[in-house]
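Predict both folds.
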Amino acid sequence: MKHKLLLACFLLIGSGVMAQSAYKWKTATSGGYTYKYVTNDPTKSRFYTLKNGLTVILSQNAKEPTIEFRMAVRAGSNTDPRNATGLAHYLEHLLFKGTDKFGTMDFAKEKPLLDKIDSLYERYNKTTDPAKRKEIYAEIDKTSGQASNFSIANEYDKMMKAIGGQSTNAHTWYEETVYNEDFPANATDKFLALQAERFRNPIFRIFHTELEAVYEEKNRGLDNDSWKLNEKMFELLFPTHNYGQQTTIGSIEHLKNPSLVEIRNYYNKYYVPNNMAVVLAGDFNPDEMIGKVDQSFAFMQAKPVSQYKPAPEKPLTNIQKVDVYGPSAESVELNYRGYAQNTRQTMMLDLISSILSNGKAGLLDINLNKQQKVLRSGASYQQMKDYGVFSLTAQPKEGQSLEQAQQLLLDQIALLKSGNWDERLIKATVANSKLGLLQAFDNNGYRVESATNEFILNRGVNWDKSLSGPDQMAKISKQQVTGFAKQFFGDNYVAGFKHKGEDKNTLKVEKPAITPVNTNAGETSDFTKNLLAAPVKPIAPKFLDYKKDLNFGKVGIADVIAVQNRDNSIFRMSYRFDMGAWNYKLQPYAAQYLTFLATDKYTAEQISKEFYNIACSYSFNVGNEVATISISGLQENFDKAVSLVEHILANCKPNETALAELKSRILKSRENNKLNKGAILNGLMSYAQYGQDNPSNYTLSNDEVKAITSEQLLYILHNINNYKHTITYYGPQTLSTFTTSIARLHKLPAEFTPIAPAKEFTYTNNTSNQVYFADYDMVQSEIRWIRNGGVYDPTLAAKVNLFNSYFGGGMGSIVFQTIRESKALAYSTFAVYSSPDKKEKEYAMIAYVGSQADKMNDAVAGMNELLNDLPRADKSFEASKDNALNAIETSRISKDDIIGSYFANQKLGIDHDSRIDEYNGLKSLTFDDINAFHRTNVSGKPYNYCIVASEKKVKLEDMQKFGTVHKLTLEQIFGY
């Protein structure tokens, strides 16, 4: 959710690209409908209000034959009843279960059983005696099994898959529930018919297994230290408001006592057209689309809606402290309560967040991160409807206390208040925001997210003010910022201290006894049959022809690959080296060191400020096999940006103090990696795939890190351009103009220095099951299966694609339906036959279940059944095949992604767009082909089980049933 909030704030401060006076509301009529729009809006959004009160926001963008969709409801956890928190989130899950027309084979027979389940939950909700509750739940479980004889699990997802949807999802937050999809433009009629039916009369079926999935979601949150810290801090920031008094996912007490009657009442109260918006962006005629949307949702009837109206919070007048314990790395966060949306104070806090932290030249960037006074730090402003939250965060470096890190953050606030900062930061922030929006508004997903957020916060009436935000911000003076900061930042914050240690208060939602329900995956409702039978005008795929779509040239001895940007003045270029950490272990450390180095002309701080002031960026990224120096920005600043990068690489000077701090930070980061369960699981996977000598632990030892010298790292930096590299360019210049420019700026040797051969790793070849286990203090267990599948074969591309779609990709897949929908064994699960990115590498069969530790045995057994025996569901297979074909037909690779596609295929030994072969191969595939693929590559094979869990909660003897157990130390996993 944090990403969404930052997106909203970015819109507020970054959307305007014209003078303020250019953004004015106008009214127009077209296609028989009246709408409002804002002049000079780069998204050309139209805002309609239909007769029943439904808001419709349309943004036409015909660059790809696809459409992004959001159905937004202005109701979330704020409007949950106090005695039933988590209700809005429950409802979100249930909107995927179908109606009386789909998701069922015989609703007349199903309904009495569903009604009985409703009444049983009401009894269960009001019963406190444990024995009686157990008895009632057993009846719920039994009746749910009977009802499942008539239900069709995930029929909604199968329809979306069949019409070409690629991103079915939804989320609930404080004041919103939003359902998101994308679909091919030629499937508009089918899509709208499905969405209209979906919201017409949702039926809450297959509830108790879905409830268990929510339990699992809650338990996963209990294993997330940052989630726990955020919840505790919000309780103090908002002692009255529901932002702090009830969580989106709900309390454990309320999760254990759901009421389907309350959920239905909530739906009837808030899911009404005058409280909802349909938002669409993509390839459509808006005059035609509005008529179709109106016709589809005309059945909805407006009702009075009472929104959440909290009492105002009293001002915070003292510093409050929160201490949270857990196994992850320590951190400190300072939270200040902000203001309501769309206020001048909100704009000021958005600006201040960038003055403090913008990734380049903010006070935290320069004074803390650049000087390595902490491991990392940042600032952000998150905006909700009634209040915002201004956050400062830091991870302490080695030997530093949380209190010391806190004081360093406060020191930057003091600098801000004193006015001891460069006023040019305001102008640069505006320029960088405008640059970002040039790219962002080209994306349909960003368009619908921005418009949806506008609707949720203020029904879209302030779109003009949002668009003019940066121009307003540009008028703010340094004196106004310092004056505001003096008033806002005081002893009025909550300090959250995340300590490393055991959380003795950790609870979990206990699992009830659940009998697997029938999914009836092979059945299809009449509604679905009729919907999918309707003909559509096909969309022809567009494949790349690298000889035509790319421009190939030379600069000296370096190859140049370019694509001309005909849309705007943005450029992105790179020097791409076919070498990385597997060639030179020191190279990643040289790239990190570069950030802190000065030259004979600039300090390290001045370099960061220079780039920020001209709204350009550069980075040096080192992967295992490829290193890239990237430069981007506006073409008018191309020469400045490239010249500065060339100057830095050629003239950077040693800084022994910075190197010493860098080594210390590297060692501290390594210790933190050992506290990260995701990093541990990835390390286990690498160990299982390659053995003791593997990519995860192929790194310098701690002693080798301590021995690194400036001379070693500077040699790499000063000589980097002497190694073979390809120059890529996406920008407004023609190839000839670009090559002339770059030849003048980028000095090349007469011949390239030979590159050291890359480290090679040997794949394991297991003949029996092995278990790789790492102990971690957590409620859940994380289990991954992996086995190597042989060297890359381009002729398998279509089969691999279709197998993944059918077997383990998305909510309509066999794995998801069985593990989550039928057996309620996990909130998160998937399985994929992973293709390598290089022709010399091997495939890997990977499966995953994240479940409660006490469900691990059942989860493993459930996944193993699927790995050994592929269930047949013909309708699901056809939907998967249609989806795979649709994805290729509607995908459009453009801009510098064309260059990326070229390099990706080159690594696989393919000299053309590989989608051509994949698309042609998909057409003739049958279930028998995929079943044969499963038998050959997946079924009956030995697997490596990678398990991260608490040894207090999982038993060694249970793991021994899976295979030979190897408990790995963190040093074995990480190599240090």
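Second protein follows, with its predicted structure tokens after the sequence.
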Amino acid sequence: MQTSQAVQIANLGFPRIGRQRELKFALERYWRGEITQLELARVAKVLRSTHWEWQAKAGVELLPVGDFAYYDQVLTLSATLNVIPDRHRGEAQEGSVDLDTLFRVARGRAPTGEDAPASEMTKFFNTNYHYIVPELKAEQTFTIAYEQIFDEVCEAQALGYRAKPVLLGPVSYLYLAKAVGSEFNKLTLLPDLLKAYGAILARFVAQGVEWVQLEEPVLALELDSDWQEAIAVTYAALQDAGIKILLASYYGTIAHHQSLVSALPVAGLHLDLVTAPEQLADFAAHLQEEQVLSLGVINGRNVWAADIDSIAQRIKPVVNDLKGRVWIAPSCSLLHSPVDLDVEDELAPALRQQLSFAKQKLSELTQLKTLLTTDQSFGTKAEADAIRAACIARRNARAEAADKRVQERVAALSPADYERDSEFAARQVRQQQKYRLPLLPTTTIGSFPQTPAIRGLRSRWRRGEISETFYKDQLRQVTKDTVDRQLKLGIDVLVHGEAERNDMVEYFGEQLQGVGFTKFGWVQSYGSRCVKPPLIYGDLSRPGAMTVDWARYAQSLTDRPVKGMLTGPVTILHWSFAREDISREQIATQIGLAIRDEVIDLQNAGIGIIQIDEPAFREGLPLKRSEWDTYLQWAVDAFKLSAAGVSDETQIHTHMCYSEFNETIEAIAAMDADVITIETSRSRMELLTAFEDFEYPNEIGPGVYDIHSPNTPTVDEMVTLIEKAADKIPVRQLWVNPDCGLKTRTWEEVEPALQNLVQATKELRRRLG
């Protein structure tokens, strides 16, 4: 075996936000008009150069190019293919688009600067990353209209790197897109789309590119015969493009499509062996002659350091058998990982040694290559021994995080712990008698604007520049102001505004035992929105009340009900980096018990309406429908466990956003929340089709105000949306509310929108009452 070809280090993609969120801040400054597009481009170029350098130093020979996006890589591909809605396209842009066009699609603007509905945004498969949904018409054509990926290939080559362009594959792109206008089969567009992909590949060939990475995560789904045929047709059509294609899939096993995939005329195949290590043997056995097999063995979606020794032992037989045709790589793009552990300077050593961020995952690949090729002199025996010793130390540290009391409490649970005292119909009567809310009650989802003053106050407090007493006094003033504004607007069920919270998951994680935190462990959620997930490293418990004081204070300011605001167990789980040594069901149950304790304490403090948010409920669905029932059962149980300890008069709300409800509506009903609020405005209430064939038994608030756009919806627009909702759901069950929390908006945007929301509701009460 030739030493240099024993195994090659590869990477599918790298985070683009920067380890200090440089891209986020540059984007937001550009949107505010504080910097020019040229200055934004300079920030982006520095980030790409830095990230390519890190990858090259780790031994990545083919650097992914095209993984960088100013907003979202699916939107960038749509721009490349000239798939831009007419409402966002200027008259002079028929054949080309620019960066501002992308921002108009994502943020809701017409070329004239006027409001235009933003394109839908939803979760990318089962991740917490959001993509902008492409809008396709029956007469859609595809042409190259945006040059970013070609420019970046040149940029990488000018720095001396071998570029491997990265694109979402044609079939996955069609699958994720939305058909607009008249109904049609999206697959009828595939022939023309393949011509456009062929033109893109020809451009790469002209640039001297050897490999291109086409990603088809749709293969992890249980595809019907038409979509399977589309995969076969696609790669047959592209095989003569004059470029080597690495077909990549991830987020789950594709073993159910093994015969289809193994027969495809591609030069290489990437497998996610973190979620599905068992698929390796079958694909290795059916690998075509000269075909490369890329082994995704480092978890691209979690922060825990890999057990390099175990991985090496597992894959070494395949490495030896395939003799130079093996690449080792992360399971998927590192987009879902924080950028760099090196900047974390406050982590406890026991926790730090267990972590690995994107930059460190590249080093793990180097270490893995050392263990796989020590006998070929890539690494020394001493280096290999040190790697194995570190793996043993991490295993020992994980074992020390166990909490026997938590484990015993979970083991003692009975079926009665998951159920409310009475059925919803009985609870509804008692709640109506207690709260006497009007027809179409108005509320908001929870958070109100986190102003620069609030964020600055929190930063000063964390740095120790102000006392905790002063900090809380200031936040009480903010809370009072928030309550007063809602009273003036005429909102029926208030919230305290969450001024004290940095993030809806992080805030709770900071108060739970068994959870750790980073300073800079940010990951991109969408656009410039980044989140810093907690690290669930041990058994979870709640040492004390987390929200009671703030809720009690807000309720003392008014006779109107003020909701207690909590994040649910399923969302805390999915939006954290969770330990991998016990099942996700066990973790959700532990969190459910902690939230249950908080719910009971809120009720005992006089808070009668409590919202337990579960925006990530659908996000956890396995990609294969055949595995849904198991997940839905334990996810529903975790929510019910958190909510079931209260009396009938206590009204439990939940909130979900970016969810398709048609396929999970029965499970959502089984959660038995008294009121559910959902995101529906971007889809113009299309998501409510789930309620046409299913008689939802409880109350529901479909969002009528898209908070992710700076646009102010008019009274007439909201009236129309509420009327659409009333066509599908009895008006007596309906609430009126925004799509989501208002944290990211300004008061100047929020108050006019809520004023219109209240006015729209009053008009409809007069009509429908």
